[in-house]
User: Which sequence fits this backbone?
């Protein structure tokens, strides 16, 4: 099955509001209005609304980098699904390795965030991936399976049409190392087989699974020809409109 490619720019804790507006405008010039692939940018919370206005007529989606599961309440430092929607967001990233590793978010909390996003009509992007130690000790598939199963706990089959997964080997994020196309494909195929087991093959065939981990203009083409890689979750290279544009306009579609 041919799945529509998706490219997500995760700006992390970069850009002031002014910087974000300039970057969004530059990306819109090179990547707006594409008919055969989707583009989404995830700026800091402070710039969500302004970026959403800039790309409003371009077809580029805007998402948040995390989300709470409640609409409002005593959750100091969190952002609710309603706030994301109000700011113009359509999607949220949950379970990024930096949230897991630096802020100690576990699968249970990540699952709450994911289900909260779905409950309010946001598209969740669930990130999974192993550390270098886990890969070297042969635990890659065990770790990824646990993250997928627990991350999707309680998610109904009907909601999988609005759920995206992203495989990000922790050892490749921001290190300059990238999983080989074969390594990436093996894990993507494994994730798709898990989705088929948890739900059914038809659902697994439709779910988009992105690759993340030092994605760059010089490795995107080899990654995108792999059968089960449906796009990319891009960090550093998404902070430059030219490099992000080259990734989005990958060769070989």
Assistant:
């Amino acid at each position: 099955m041919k799945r529509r490619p998706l490219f997500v720019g995760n700006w992390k804790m970069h850009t002031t509001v002014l910087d974000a507006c300039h970057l969004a405008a530059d990306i819109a010039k090179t990547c707006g209005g594409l008919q055969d692939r989707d583009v989404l940018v995830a700026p800091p919370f402070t710039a969500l609304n302004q970026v959403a206005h800039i790309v409003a007529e371009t077809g580029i989606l805007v998402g948040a980098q995390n989300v709470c599961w409640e609409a409002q309440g005593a959750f100091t430092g969190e952002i609710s699904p309603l706030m994301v929607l109000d700011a113009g967001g359509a999607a949220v990233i949950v379970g990024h390795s930096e949230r897991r590793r630096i802020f100690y978010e576990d699968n249970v909390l990540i699952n709450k965030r994911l289900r909260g996003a779905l409950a309010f009509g946001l598209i969740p992007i669930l990130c999974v991936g192993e550390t270098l130690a886990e890969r070297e000790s042969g635990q890659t598939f065990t770790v990824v399976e646990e993250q997928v199963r627990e991350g999707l706990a309680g998610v109904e089959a009907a909601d999988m049409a609005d759920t995206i997964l992203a495989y990000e080997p922790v050892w490749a994020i921001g290190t300059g190392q990238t999983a080989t196309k074969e390594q990436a494909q093996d894990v993507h195929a494994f994730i798709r087989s898990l989705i088929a087991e948890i739900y059914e093959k038809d659902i697994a065939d439709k779910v988009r699974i992105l690759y993340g981990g030092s994605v760059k203009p010089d490795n995107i083409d080899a990654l995108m020809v792999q059968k089960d890689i449906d796009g990319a979750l891009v960090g550093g290279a998404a902070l430059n409109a030219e490099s992000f544009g080259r990734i989005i306009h990958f060769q070989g579609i």
The longest strand covers residues 123-128.
